[in-house]
Amino acid sequence: MDTQQLLEAAQTIDILRSMFADEKNEWLPVIAAIGGAFVGGVSSFFPSFFLEKRKSKLEKRSVEIAIISEISAFLEVIERREYVHELKEDINYLKQNPDEKIQFAVIVPAHYSQVYQQHISKIGLLHPELSARIIRFHQLIDSVVQDIATDGVVANVGGDLKTLSELLEIFESAVTVGREIVGEKVQ
Question: pTM of the full predicted structure?
Answer without folding.
Answer: 0.70
